[in-house]
Specification:
Oligomer: single chain
Shape: globular
Number of strands: 11
Radius of gyration: 18 Å
Helix content: 10-25%
Structural class: alpha/beta
Cofactor: FAD
Strand content: 25-35%
CATH class of the largest domain: Alpha Beta
Organism: Nitrosomonas mobilis
InterPro entries: FAD-bd_FR_type (IPR017927), FNR_nucleotide-bd (IPR039261), MRET (IPR050415), OxRdtase_FAD/NAD-bd (IPR001433), Riboflavin_synthase-like_b-brl (IPR017938)
Number of helices: 6
Keywords: 2Fe-2S, Iron, Iron-sulfur, Metal-binding
Order of helices and strands: EEEEEHEEHEHEHHEHE
Largest sheet: 6 strands, antiparallel
Pfam families: NAD_binding_1
């Protein structure tokens, strides 16, 4: 069962075109693994009720950091419209903890993340924590967006790549470079059968990448997915 925490909304800010980040107080003693998520419950002042006041978001923040951050594409839904209006300083409820989209323990196996759009949120957490912990995981991130303006956290990811010799960041902008395909994957992943794969992003993209990886020789048992539904 999840635990309920009352936390303060510290900050809201736009971090990419149409993408909002929410920074929350971190409850005392709150522990999680990079890649996990919680439900953000909006206050009654928004006019929402138990049927529509709650949504699950991956933590963008890493466990070593002293606040909790979540981010979302701001679609035109009741929840998203209400979330945009909650003032900084308001109390919200956090229900946690969920999820197993977490980095494998075995540092001898390389990890390849193929991510689209807002699917970057758990991945930023995982890479930040691995960089902080100086783990020996060899990590490659292929991060696809239509344009640079839509891509969140690229500055931070570039910084992690500069700090962490084991981390390679591959941004892909589909409006000019085309979609992630066999050639691109093989260019950055020489031995396709070897790594553990982590796919996160819109459902269609995740399913397509999973099929493509299996087709080109990845081990189906070594593919972990996190699908971000439209809402």
């Amino acid at each position: 069962m999840p635990t309920s925490y009352d936390v303060r909304l510290l900050q809201k800010k736009e971090i990419a075109e149409g993408t909002m980040e929410f920074t929350l107080e971190k409850p005392k003693g709150f522990e999680y693994r990079a890649g996990q998520y919680g439900d953000l419950v909006l206050p009654p002042s928004t006019g929402l009720d138990d049927s529509n006041n709650k949504h699950g978001f991956s933590f963008v923040s890493a466990p070593f950091e002293d606040t909790l951050r979540m981010a979302t594409r701001m679609r035109d839904s009741l929840y998203k419209r209400a979330a945009a209006k909650v003032p900084e300083g308001a109390m919200v409820q956090l229900l946690a903890l969920w999820g197993d989209f977490t980095l494998q323990k075995n540092e001898a196996v390389s990890a390849v993340f193929i991510t689209g759009g807002i699917g970057i949120t758990p991945v930023r957490s995982i890479i930040a924590q691995a960089t902080h912990d100086k783990t020996n995981h060899k990590i490659t991130l292929i991060y696809a967006n239509r344009t640079p303006a839509l891509a969140a956290y690229t500055d931070e990811l570039e910084r992690f790549a500069a700090e962490n010799k084991n981390f390679t960041f591959v941004p892909v902008y589909t409006s000019t470079q085309g979609h992630v395909n066999t050639d691109l994957i093989k260019r950055h992943v020489p031995d396709v059968a070897a790594p553990r794969y982590y796919l996160s992003g819109p459902e269609g993209m995740v399913k397509a990448m999973r099929s493509l990886l299996i087709e080109i020789g990845a081990d189906e048992d070594n593919i972990k997915t996190e699908e971000f539904e439209g809402y």
